[in-house]
């Protein structure tokens, strides 16, 4: 029933009309005044009561007519009652006409609205029978309504055909419940379309009442939610895949509320730790961290509380409980998820088992400690350098030897390597050391050299330094490892031994020479004595009067015989210095020079003399006795060193090898005082040395000439001397 101010006014008017009609009927003694009451009843009763009133007025009219014809009285009361009933019926129809017209107009308007809606609409009677289905619904279902039973196709069997079999029972149960209780009908189910495919719909309907409060029927709509269902299925599939991914990730994943209350742990977390979500949640809702080792728990709680309070990321390494009772080192990280306003809506964390990594790191650290102790306790000085040679580490022994730490070299214009060499290496050795270092750094070849190094107390001590390159898998140098040994005592001992050996060799040579001289004198003395005696005899025979020529001739023959015997002795002595051709082989003269330089290097360093070698390219090999040529080179180089014993300035010996026509030429030049008698120095027993025997250069020339070559001396400008010898490239012949 409608409510509001217009209905109140109509009620008051109806009451007034009823009073006026009743008063008129009483004053006129006629029932027609009650027609106002009849009109008021029609206006305020529902349709069922109005129908009953019409039936009552119809019966009253029929009864009044019958009574009137039986009474045969034109003015009878029955006639008046019949007329009243007719007027009441007319008044009822007149009152109903505007309402029906209005209802028809409203129905048409409602139908237009419903048909224009982008939805599938329907209506049913209060007892659930379909009374209307929109054209769009029928079009989707592919059904055509006939005129005799417009909507019977959607009742009973029709619904069974349209609704998916798996959904039908549930839909009917919801429908029966709504019809029984009058509660709205709301269900989601699949409906078959005209093409035979099923789509998801949501059907919603509610029970409506008319103006009088009577049940008017069910009105509802069906909304196509296929896209929504597909989206929900895709979302569920995505969530399932995400869950599978989370469970498959080799990490323990968890989440909390903005305030820290745990909300989720993945399957791997439960399996690994043996703890559930409830186990890691404290009674007050905070994370209990019960799976964290007791010794690490306080620090972990402080760190995560700080993150929850400030919003800063959480990072912590601690020992975490495992299901078997053991604790594993674990790295845990957590980041907050924020909304568009920047407020934290969730914390997400991940815990990764790094126990093997931590264990390996501890093993590496222990190994490093052992290696460092080994390096620090080795009786050697260790140095490590970057690929460019700059030192990056020095052992304790080296630091103590030098008297300063590596870091003290920083801050100046020089690099660590250059500063170390300039401050520590002896000035006479510095250029050679730098040159060798530069060569090794440029070529990657190992470094090996002996030189003098300044100790912390200022004393220079002999050291032997060796360096090797450490390379990666690609062959690139990643570090130089250097070892330095203090060999000062060894060098001094070797020098003393060398000097003793030299003295012993000199004494031995003197003794041998004396013995050789005595032997030569003995061997030569007899034929010479015979020559002298025979000469005197020949003289006597020739001076006799008369001269005895026959005797003199025989004496001369004996003189010739004895002289040839002396010459034979000399030839046998010379044969001692001549070698057999069978010992000569083809060799690179440059390699022989390099070997001699290596043999003479220690003596050169001791004498503070630099050996420079200049070998021309493409020098062909020569056939030589390698040992004899080494003797020649050693003798000539040593003579040059001894000649520069008192020289000042540049103390160097230059050895140059080149080719001239069909021979190779070796020039050994020094910067000494020069050769005073260049023509006599090769004569046996001629010497300018106080302790010399004058045999070295003679033997050298004899060896060179035995190889088919020549040896001579030249003066240098402005001072110094050069000893030059040549050897033929073709096969040598003994001269």
Question: Would you give an account of this structure?
Answer:
It is a single chain. With 735 residues, the protein is α+β, with helices and mostly antiparallel strands. Helices cover 49% and strands 22% of the residues. It is built from 19 helices and 22 strands. A five-stranded antiparallel β-sheet has the order 2-1-5-4-3, with helices on both faces. It has a five-stranded antiparallel β-sheet with strand order 7-6-10-9-8, with helices on both faces. β21 (710-715) and β22 (721-728) form a beta hairpin. The protein is rod-shaped, with a radius of gyration of 66 Å. 19% of the residues are buried. Mean pLDDT is 80; it is low at 1-6, 99-104 and 146-154. Residues 519-731 form the Histidine kinase domain. Its EC number is 2.7.13.3. The chain crosses the membrane at residues 48-69, 76-97. It holds the Pfam family HisKA.
SSE arrangement:
Blueprint lengths: L4 H24 L6 H10 L2 H25 L5 H40 L3 E5 L5 E4 L1 H7 L15 H6 L2 H17 L3 E8 L5 E12 L5 E10 L1 H23 L3 E5 L5 E4 L1 H7 L20 H17 L3 E8 L5 E12 L5 E10 L1 H23 L3 E5 L5 E4 L1 H7 L13 H9 L2 H17 L3 E8 L5 E12 L5 E10 L1 H56 L5 H27 L9 E3 L1 H18 L3 E6 L6 E3 L1 H18 L8 E9 L2 E7 L26 H11 L3 E6 L5 E8 L7
Parallel strand pairs: 17-19
Antiparallel strand pairs: 1-2, 1-5, 3-4, 4-5, 6-7, 6-10, 8-9, 9-10, 11-12, 11-15, 13-14, 14-15, 16-18, 19-20, 20-22, 21-22
Helix pairs in contact: 1-2, 2-4, 3-4, 15-16, 17-18, 18-19
